[in-house]
Design goal:
Layout lengths: L1 E7 L1 H4 L4 E7 L7 E6 L4 H14 L7 E4 L8 H13 L3 E4 L9 H21 L4
Parallel strand pairs: 4-5
Antiparallel strand pairs: 1-2, 2-3
Organism: Arcella intermedia
Pfam family, one: DDE_3
GO molecular function: nucleic acid binding
Length: 128
C-alpha cells in the first residue's frame, strides 16, 4: 500500500483548501480516496490509518509506504501509529527524502492537478 496526500489550493476548486489522500495497492485491492476540508495534520493521518485498519484496507502482511511529510513522523503520534500498524501486522516504510519518483501516488496527483487546472482554464480562464 502506498499512502500519499496533497494539499489543493483555494483557487483550484474555488472553495476551502482540501486535503486529498490516496491509498494505492499493487494487488487487486480498490484504490481508497479521502477528500477532507481543512485537514492536514498528523492526527488526520492517524485517524485515516485507524479507519483503514478497522475497515480491512490495511491487513497483516501489507507494507504501508509513506513519504517524509512531517505528519507521518510527528513525535506525538508516531509511537501510536507504529503500535497500531504492528497490531494489524502492517509494516511501515518511509521513502527516501526527495524521491517522488518512488511514490506511485505522486503520478496520480499530477494527473488530478493537471485535470483540475485544465477545467479551470477552460471554464474560468484561470491559469496557474
Amino acid at each position: 500500500m502506498v499512502y500519499c496526500r496533497t494539499w489543493i489550493k483555494n483557487n483550484y476548486l474555488h472553495s476551502k483548501p482540501l486535503s486529498l489522500t490516496i491509498l494505492l495497492s499493487l494487488s487487486n485491492n480498490p484504490i481508497q480516496i479521502s477528500l477532507r476540508e481543512n485537514s492536514n495534520t498528523q492526527y488526520d493521518f492517524l485517524d485515516l490509518l485507524v479507519f483503514y485498519c478497522i475497515s480491512g484496507y490495511l491487513k497483516a502482511g501489507d507494507y504501508l509506504i509513506v513519504d517524509n511529510w512531517a505528519g507521518h513522523q510527528a513525535t506525538d503520534t508516531l509511537y501510536i501509529i507504529e503500535k497500531l500498524l504492528t497490531e494489524y501486522g502492517v509494516a511501515l516504510i518511509f521513502l527516501p527524502a526527495y524521491s517522488p519518483e518512488l511514490n506511485l501516488a505522486e503520478l496520480i496527483f499530477n494527473y488530478i492537478k493537471m485535470g483540475v487546472q485544465a477545467i479551470d482554464l477552460f471554464l474560468f480562464g484561470l491559469e496557474y
